């Protein structure tokens, strides 16, 4: 998932997508622990997607905090 696609998502979609990506990562890790998966770089890609989504979520939270602080 590209950053441009992540930015276009709503806050609710981001949190849902983050939950889905974390579940997928756990499944990949489990599958890799049981038997070697075909492409171990998929774990790396999943971690990076989670980081990208989490970064966007935290950016939006910080922007919301600064907007409410400036209004008060």
TrEMBL record:
Keywords, sorted A to Z: Ribonucleoprotein, Ribosomal protein
Cellular component terms (Gene Ontology): ribonucleoprotein complex; ribosome
Entry's Gene Ontology molecular function annotations: structural constituent of ribosome
GO terms for biological process, alphabetical: translation
Coiled coil: none
Protein name from the UniProt record: Large ribosomal subunit protein uL29
Manganese among keywords: no
Species whose genome carries this gene: Sphingobacterium psychroaquaticum
Superkingdom per UniProt: Bacteria
InterPro entries: Ribosomal_uL29, Ribosomal_uL29_CS, Ribosomal_uL29_sf
NCBIfam families: L29 (TIGR00012)
Entry's family note: Belongs to the universal ribosomal protein uL29 family.
Positions of transmembrane segments: none
